[in-house]
Input
Amino acid sequence: MSNNNSLKVLLAGAECAPFVKLGGLADVMGTLPKELNQIGADARVIMPFHSQMKGKYGAQTRHLADFNINFSGGETYVGVEELVYNEVTYYLIDNEGFFGDAVYRGGLAEGEQYAFFCRAVIEAVSRIGFIPDVIHCNDWQTGLIPILLRT
Output
């Protein structure tokens, strides 16, 4: 980690190598934070805690927070786990209903899946002890984050 005067960057995305890799986004999410940290930033990642990760990395995580958000007409659980891996801090948004099966569900279910993720990211930031200067949103799955921040 960098000093307190570092630019604080939170990279948000649906997948990240080596944890979950289905396309090029995972490669960017897996390498960019390391590179930013090497030039003096404090770059961290926030992503869903997909079921594909839990078996291999679940025991290495530290529970940071859990809370409910009003989503889709009801109270919905959000857990936040922290994983430090290869000198990068990862925040993992946990919810079995949204991330317990496919990374990308397709159709309307996928839209709801990542609308939930965006909302959970906004609510989690104040609870993780890391207030970023920049939230770096990657691909359409994080597209609601800037809109939610503005509203």
Notes: The first strand starts at residue 8 and ends at 12. The chain has a mean pLDDT of 94. Strands lie at 8-12, 42-48, 62-71, 74-85, 88-94, 134-137. Residues 63 and 81 are 5 Å apart (CA to CA).
